[in-house]
Amino acid sequence: SERTLVLVKPDGVGRGLVGEVISRIERKGLTLAALELRTVKRDIAEQHYAEHQGKGFYESLLEFITSGQVVALVVEGERAIEAFRQLAGATDPVKANNGSIRGDFATVVQNNIVHGSDSPESAAREIKLWFPDLG
Ligand code: GTP
Ligand code: MG
């Protein structure tokens, strides 16, 4: 089995979609290994989104992710990384399939409700960043 780092972003928390996201994770057959409601400090946000440094939307993205509470989760199961990316849908919510979280609940590329790690390397790095004490 495999672990992935999931975030319900400030738009998802603000719109009351935490239960909806967790419900979809559970219905898919994945399980929760860690869960915490928190506000994101600037340095954590910078490390989390380091790959996007220098892009036009980087500052705006950091502002957005630090603008309110997020729910951070470690999600576990067979092929959890790919499975959650499928639940989330494409980055641009207007291109995401109906039935995916982004496809069903968003229209704006930045404000796309959830984050999910995109590879085993990203998952390991992000889980260590968000849950350093998790065994
Ligand atoms: P994450 O799971 O959040 O990492 O999304 P992703 O892997 O589907 O997309 P990516 O890592 O390429 O981008 C990270 C986040 O930056 C996206 O989820 C969006 O919130 C935001 N983002 C991506 N592209 C754009 C863009 O063109 N404009 C803006 N404003 N935000 C963007
Ligand atoms: Mg990404």
Automatic annotation (TrEMBL):
Signal peptide: none annotated. InterPro entries: NDK-like_dom, NDK-like_dom_sf, Nucleoside_diP_kinase, Nucleoside_diP_kinase_AS. GO terms for biological process: CTP biosynthetic process; GTP biosynthetic process; UTP biosynthetic process. Keywords: ATP-binding, Cytoplasm, Kinase, Magnesium, Metal-binding, Nucleotide metabolism, Nucleotide-binding, Phosphoprotein, Transferase. Transmembrane segments: none annotated. This is Nucleoside diphosphate kinase. Homotetramer. PROSITE patterns: NDPK, NDPK_LIKE. HAMAP family: NDP_kinase (MF_00451). It catalyses: a 2'-deoxyribonucleoside 5'-diphosphate + ATP = a 2'-deoxyribonucleoside 5'-triphosphate + ADP; a ribonucleoside 5'-diphosphate + ATP = a ribonucleoside 5'-triphosphate + ADP. Its cofactor is Mg(2+). One of its GO terms (cellular component) is cytoplasm. PANTHER family: NUCLEOSIDE DIPHOSPHATE KINASE. Major role in the synthesis of nucleoside triphosphates other than ATP. The ATP gamma phosphate is transferred to the NDP beta phosphate via a ping-pong mechanism, using a phosphorylated active-site intermediate. It comes from Herbihabitans rhizosphaerae. The gene is ndk.
